[in-house]
């Protein structure tokens, strides 16, 4: 199959073919549209692609309507669409919970201390998922970090710990996604182990580490600075949380432990040396410790060897 970054093709100035779907754009508000971008007064409509497929040309990086904002190792690619939406295309593993399903679950819980994207449209085809999402207003914490003083940096540490506490009040029956399907957590697989995300396979190392596995709580599992949205200029201190791809139910001990282990939650290299890059997740895990969350990182290191 074609690379993920080549999934978008242009049919005409206002029509795109994106995998199994068509995206149409029209000027002005259209009541039947999938979403409306008020900032540029365009309506966007997503439908299943027709048969036969229309003639289309490859997406160009010069296309000002789509901007590639994320592209990692042929696993996931994200484009911004206008000013109010994103299109996320990723490889899809069978029997795993989709991000669209997880977001629907979080929306149903109606959390009040953070915002999340709305799902406009989702589809799966040929081992890939296609997700159209609203843009949470603001910018990522990683982008904002150099402009923040100590007060605001610590405010956001506290805000994210409160997110963890909110999520862990939601309970599941085992290690799994919100619909009972598998949750993708590579840190609970040994190096070179096949990608078996079956609940029993992920539960085994948790028990070996000595975690309390009598109950399972909800966890985002990737609350790094690129997944936290803050105000362009801090005023109220509100936050948004994006990228719910690996969220699911885990033993409570995994919440703090994941912050200790995952370098993916570091601050950007531009902030300085390794200790500076680790500041965010280090301060998060310290505050989680003060709030009664346990740390099994040493046990994880011993198990992983």
Description of the structure:
There is one protein chain. The chain is an alpha+beta fold. 25% of the residues lie in helices and 26% in strands. It has 2 domains: 131 residues, Phosphorylase Kinase, domain 1, CATH 3.30.200; 166 residues, Aminoglycoside 3'-phosphotransferase, Chain: A, domain 2 (Alpha-Beta Complex), CATH 3.90.1200. The strands form 4 sheets. The protein has a 6-stranded antiparallel sheet with strand order 4-5-3-2-1-6, with no helix packed on it. It has a 5-stranded antiparallel sheet with strand order 7-8-9-11-10, with helices on one face. A 3-stranded antiparallel sheet has the order 12-15-16. The radius of gyration is 20 Å and the shape is globular. The two termini are 36 Å apart.
In the predicted model, the low-confidence regions spanning at least 5 consecutive residues are none
Shape: globular
- Measured distance between first and last alpha carbons: 36 Å
Oligomer: single chain
What integer value in Å does the Rg equal? 20 Å
* Biggest pleated-sheet summary: 6 strands, antiparallel
The CATH topology name of the largest domain reads Aminoglycoside 3'-phosphotransferase, Chain: A, domain 2
User: What is the annotated CATH architecture of the largest domain?
Assistant: Alpha-Beta Complex
Number of E-type strands: 17
* Mean pLDDT, all residues: 95
Structural class: alpha+beta
CATH class of the largest domain: Alpha Beta
Q: What number of structural domains do the residues give?
A: 2
Q: Indicate the proportion of strand residues.
A: 25-35%
- Largest sheet: spatial strand order: 4-5-3-2-1-6
How are helices and strands ordered from N to C? EEEEEEEEEHEEEHHEHEEEEHHHH
Helix fraction?
Answer: 10-25%
By DSSP (H or I, 4+ residues per run), the number of helices equals 8
């Amino acid at each position: 199959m074609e690379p993920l970054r080549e999934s978008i093709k242009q049919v005409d100035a206002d029509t795109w073919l994106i995998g199994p779907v068509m995206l149409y754009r029209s000027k002005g508000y259209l009541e039947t549209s999938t979403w409306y971008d008020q900032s540029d007064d365009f309506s966007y409509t997503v439908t299943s692609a027709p048969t036969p497929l229309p003639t289309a040309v490859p997406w160009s990086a010069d296309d000002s309507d789509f901007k590639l904002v994320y592209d990692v190792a042929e696993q996931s690619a994200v484009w911004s669409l206008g000013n109010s939406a994103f299109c996320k295309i990723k490889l899809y593993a069978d029997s795993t919970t989709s991000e669209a399903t997880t977001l629907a679950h979080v929306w149903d819980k109606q959390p009040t201390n953070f915002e999340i994207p709305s799902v406009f449209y989702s589809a799966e085809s040929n081992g890939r998922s296609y997700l159209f999402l609203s843009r949470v207003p603001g910018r990522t914490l990683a982008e904002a970090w150099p402009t923040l003083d100590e007060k605001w940096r610590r405010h956001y540490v506290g805000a994210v710990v409160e997110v963890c506490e909110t999520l862990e009040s939601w309970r599941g029956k085992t290690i799994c996604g919100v619909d009972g399907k598998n949750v993708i957590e590579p840190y609970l697989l040994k190096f070179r182990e096949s990608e078996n995300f079956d609940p029993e396979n992920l539960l085994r190392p948790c028990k070996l580490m000595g975690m309390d596995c009598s109950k399972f709580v909800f966890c985002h599992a990737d609350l790094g600075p690129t997944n936290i949205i803050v105000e362009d200029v801090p005023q109220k201190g509100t936050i948004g949380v994006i990228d719910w791809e690996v969220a699911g139910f885990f033993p409570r001990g995994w919440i703090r432990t994941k912050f200790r282990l995952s370098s993916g939650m570091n601050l950007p290299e531009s902030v300085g040396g390794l200790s500076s890059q680790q500041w965010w997740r280090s301060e998060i895990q310290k505050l989680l410790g003060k709030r009664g969350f346990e740390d099994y990182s040493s046990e994880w290191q011993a198990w992983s060897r």
